[in-house]
Amino acid sequence: MLKLAKRNILRNQRMFQKVYLHGRSWANRYLVLYVFPVIGPERKAGFAAGKKLGNAVTRNRLKRLMRESYRRNQEQLADGFYCLLVARKPAVGAKEPKMERAFLELAGRASILRQGKV
Fold this sequence. Notes:
Blueprint: H1 13-22, E1 24-27, E2 31-37, E3 43-48, H2 56-73, E4 81-87, H3 96-109
Parallel strand pairs: 3-4
Antiparallel strand pairs: 1-2, 2-4
Helix pairs in contact: 2-3
């Protein structure tokens, strides 16, 4: 079982803003994926759910689903980027398999999957 280490999660606001403002974005119905390339074998991810999506319980559930989707597929992702996953309104009612498929679709479109993995 793979674990999502704390050192691999974007935590400070400055890095969130850098990825959000200068990264490239891809979106589908459930998620928006921002990708910011970095030099070296580093890979970090951030997860966000805005207040328009609901109360704290709902937002935390969405972030938990996004983290789990990322964690399950992190071995398929290439190195050398920071990514930010932002939940959209339709994600509020989505279950885990839909969120995971949405993440993999965006990762494929963003070309951050390792070769031969889809």
